């Protein structure tokens, strides 16, 4: 997916709920080396 879309940041989460009681969650992240997230906006202190 990264090669196809060339994102600055990507998070992929897959949740598997299969028969037999085996539950698995897989989370994978990719970010370009120069990418920085936007600062968090805290609306409770405005």
Structure description:
This protein is mainly beta and 46 residues long. Strands 1-2 form a two-stranded antiparallel sheet. It contains 1 helix and 2 strands. The longest helix is centred in the N-terminal third of the chain and has 4 residues, at 2-5. A hairpin with a 5-residue loop joins strand 1 (9-17) and strand 2 (23-31). Helices cover 9% and strands 39% of the residues. It has a domain at 1-32.
Helix coverage percent of residues?
A: under 10%
Mean pLDDT: 91
**CA-atom Rg in angstroms:** 16 Å
Low-confidence stretches: none
How much of the polypeptide forms β-strand, as a percent range? 35-45%
What topology, given as strand order, has the largest sheet?
Answer: 1-2
The number of distinct β-strands equals: 2
Order of helices and strands: HEE
Count helical runs.
1
End-to-end gap = 39 Å
- Overall geometry comes to flat
Largest sheet: 2 strands, antiparallel
Structural class comes to mainly beta
What's the arrangement of secondary structure elements?
Elements: H1 2-5, E1 9-17, E2 23-31
Antiparallel strand pairs: 1-2
Quick tags:
single chain; 46 residues; mainly beta; two-stranded antiparallel sheet; 1 helix; 2 strands; flat
Summarize this, please?
The protein is mainly beta. It has one helix at residues 2-5, and strands spanning 9-17, 23-31.
């Amino acid at each position: 997916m990264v090669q196809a879309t060339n994102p600055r940041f990507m998070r992929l989460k897959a949740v598997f709920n299969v028969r037999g009681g085996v539950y698995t969650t897989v989370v994978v992240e990719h970010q370009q080396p120069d990418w920085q997230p936007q600062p968090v906006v805290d609306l409770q202190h405005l």
